[in-house]
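Hi all, posting the design record for the shared folder.

TITLE: backbone redesign
STEP: 1 of 1
STRUCTURE INPUT:
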């Protein structure tokens, strides 16, 4: 059973930084793609970043490129999202996602964590 559990969300001022973690378990994730998404109540879910577990190739939404960094620790089975230079518009629930298909980094994720709240104050 694949399980994803996010942590690290909270309150931060604009311009600050936060690191989200996603503990992944239940499977070996070689050849999997991992992603981060965010969603505001009443809004569509938005792609943030993705990474290939094995190769480390990354993809970022334009809105976060240069500010956010996705990474993973293979030994700890943990996915990270380092968020720097945070803006109020980054406020959202952030979700960790995973899928076995590695083709499209922005779509068709099968497994999801319960989410963690990030609030950026102005």
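Okay, here is what came back for every position:
SEQUENCE:
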């Amino acid at each position: 059973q694949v399980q994803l559990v996010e942590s690290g969300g909270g309150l931060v001022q604009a311009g600050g930084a936060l690191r989200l973690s996603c503990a992944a378990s239940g499977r070996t994730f070689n050849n999997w793609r991992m992603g981060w998404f965010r969603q505001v109540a009443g809004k569509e879910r938005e792609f943030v970043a993705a990474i290939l577990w094995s190769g480390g190739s990354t993809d970022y939404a334009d809105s976060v490129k240069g500010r956010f960094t996705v990474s993973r620790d293979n030994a700890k089975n943990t996915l990270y999202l380092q968020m720097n230079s945070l803006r109020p518009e980054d406020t959202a629930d952030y979700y960790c996602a995973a899928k076995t298909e590695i083709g499209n980094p922005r779509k068709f994720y099968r497994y999801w964590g319960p989410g963690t709240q990030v609030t950026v104050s102005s």
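COMMENT: The radius of gyration is 13 Å.
Let me know if anyone wants the other runs.
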